[in-house]
Amino acid sequence: MQKPITALTALAAILASATIGCGGSSSSSQAATEVQSPKHVILIIGDGMQMEHEVAASRYLTGTDDGLAFHAFPFQSYVSTWDVTAYNKYASFNGTASYAPGAVDASTGYDITLGGVAPYPVDTADHSSYFYLNSTLGWPATDSASAATAMSTGYKTDDGNIAWLSGDPSTGGNRTANNGSLKTIAEIAREERGMAIGVVSTVPFNHATPAGFVSHNVNRNNYYIGYKSATTGIADEIISTIKPEVVIGGGHPLLDNPAYSTTKGYISQSLHNTLKASSDFVFAERATGMNGSITLAQAADTAVAGGKKLFGLYGGAGGNFEYHVPTDTPGSPSVARGSYENPELKDASVAALKVLSQNEKGFFLMIEQGDIDWANHANQYENMIGCMYDLNETVKSVVSYVDQPGDDIDWTNTLLIVTSDHSNSFMRLSTTNTLGIGDLPPTDATERANYVTYGTTGHTNELVTIYAKGPTAALTTLSSNYRTWYNADILDNTHLFHSMATFIGAPKTSPLTVTQ
After folding, report:
1. Residues near 132 by beta carbon (within 8 Å), at least 6 away in sequence
2. Sorting pLDDT into bands at 50, 70 and 90, what band is 479?
3. How many angstroms separate the Cα of 330 from the Cα of each of 183, 333, 387?
4. For 346-367, what is the mean pLDDT?
5. What is the CA radius of gyration of the chain?
6. Contact status, residue 203 vs residue 368, Cβ threshold 8 Å
7. Mean pLDDT of the chain
8. Residue 437: how many CB atoms within 10 A of its CB?
9. Is 2 inside any structural domain?
10. Does residue 452 sit in helix, strand or coil?
11. Which residues, in sequence order, are bridge partners of residue 20?
């Protein structure tokens, strides 16, 4: 699977106009003349997705290695994902200095001499000794909370932090709260540009990735006030304080926690009741025997008609949407919907876009296929394929939405990014026993190992991919900042924040300084 990673591309030019802590920044004049009225940002995250998962899904769905919808996007590159916790593990192992934002050694976070300048299978070398490191330190890698924080705020932080400074301080940060919390790209879009904001996910709405864009907490597991004695609650902040224009996700108590226990579940009874009685949100929720795509679409139409916000609360046992189910049908891929009662992610995304697009000043929308990560934690190949199918269909639907005529959303003012927050599972496909279109590996464990293997049930520090489409595709200025961190065509996940902030006309200076 080849990537045009040396192309002079869109996102690189946007980064050229942002100060990202590598020593000077270039002029934004070209970006200003070529980017026409930037108004809309859509960030799609495949949680726990690495390139080998993309290849596997593409083979099943298209019979090729690069046939997914986003594989045709004009900008393609790679992203490093390490967080402060992973950085410090590598520093301990190497005997180098611990993380300090003013003196970042990028090679401590990700060393290209040990991990490669591209992910597998572009780089086929065996880098397992670097990613495995050792039994004592484990597999240094970001978690979803700190990864979301990097993308949403431009700050590196600790494992488990939601838009909060490393070390969990009670003062500082860059919000008026002065309590250690960090302003997210969604907050910047709303406060500085008057844009609408939204998050959509197949996992609970207050889980790490969506939470990282619309809430702030020192612990990703503080799902709501009272959960295991939590005194601050992510759901409480999202519903009662931040109040995004759109929130759609899992965590419904119907199957997850019907008794509203304070030791499980993702939402309290009081918050559930608040949503049902809300005058801010049009509320849609999972209901027995009801088509979730239809109930959500109807709620979106009602929200548009009434000028209100939209909240969709769905999900199954454990909080997540049920997996889509692929079948082993060589020559003819077939994927069944995971649950009739949950909306499909593509439909949830369109519902969100309908509501957000009512704001004439534009919008920021984060869409997450979060079940990819769960499937990979469990080393469940079929579930991963079903999730990747769901992601691919969502990308196609978002592209079609932008393509439709008759509105002010088009590719002159809309930036669409598809990426991952981290790798997961160290999955490898056989180079000799390849699977074709509609093919799934044998169910027998011994036979299956001839087709696909896993190295772990956890995250890894491998590079992930990024794809982008939009007005920036015409830009041709390559930023020196883009290359300085690793002396290679690799973005850091904090750079995604700067690309989005600069695109909407709200560039920020990075708190990070690279010393190498």
Report:
1. 139, 455
2. very low
3. 49, 7, 19
4. 98
5. 21
6. yes
7. 91
8. 17
9. no
10. strand
11. none
Residue whose C-alpha is closest to residue 362's, from 170, 194, 477: 194
The band of 202, judged by pLDDT with boundaries at 50, 70 and 90, is very high
**In whole angstroms, what separates CA 385 from the centre of its chain?**
18
Contacts 24+ apart (CB under 8 A), 130-134: 131/426, 131/460, 131/461, 131/462, 132/455, 133/89, 133/90, 133/93, 134/93
Q: What is the pLDDT of residues 216-255, one digit of tens each?
A: 999 999 999 999 999 999 999 999 999 999 999 999 999 9
Residue 175 CA to residue 264 CA, distance in Å, equals 31
The backbone region for 245, taken as left when phi is positive above 0, alpha when psi lies in -120 to 50, beta otherwise, is alpha
Q: How far apart are the first and last CA of the chain?
A: 31
Q: Which domain holds residue 95?
A: 10-133+140-380+393-503
* Chain mean position to CA 454: 22
The closest alpha carbon to 237, from 265, 218, 263, belongs to 218
- At 78, the amino acid letter reads Y
Asked whether residue 510 is assigned to any structural domain, the reply reads no
Q: Tell me which H or E stretch contains 312.
A: strand 309-313
As a three-state string, the secondary structure of 39-92 is: CEEEEEEECCCCHHHHHHHHHHHHCCCCCCHHHHCCEEEEEECCCHHHHHHHHH
CA 332 to chain centre: 30
Q: Nearest to residue 375, comparing CAs of 324, 413, 411?
A: 324
User: Would residue 65 count as lying in a domain?
Assistant: yes
d(CA 244, CA 366): 11
What is the count of structural domains for the chain? 1
Q: Would you list the DSSP string of 162-195?
A: BSB-TT--SS-SSSTT-SSB---HHHHHHHHH--
- In tens, the pLDDT along 8-59 reads 344 554 444 444 444 333 333 333 334 447 799 999 999 999 999 999 999 9
**CATH code: domain of residue 127:** 3.40.720.10
What average pLDDT does the segment 362-371 reach? 98
Residue 4 lies inside a defined structural domain of this protein = no
Distance CA 105, CA 111 (A): 10
| pLDDT, tens digit, 9 for 90 and up, residues 144-167 | 999 999 999 999 999 999 999 999
Give the pLDDT confidence of 429-477 residue by residue, as tens digits.
Answer: 999 999 999 999 999 999 999 999 999 999 999 999 999 998 754 333 3
Neighbours of 113 (CB within 10 A): 8
CA distance 414 to 373: 27
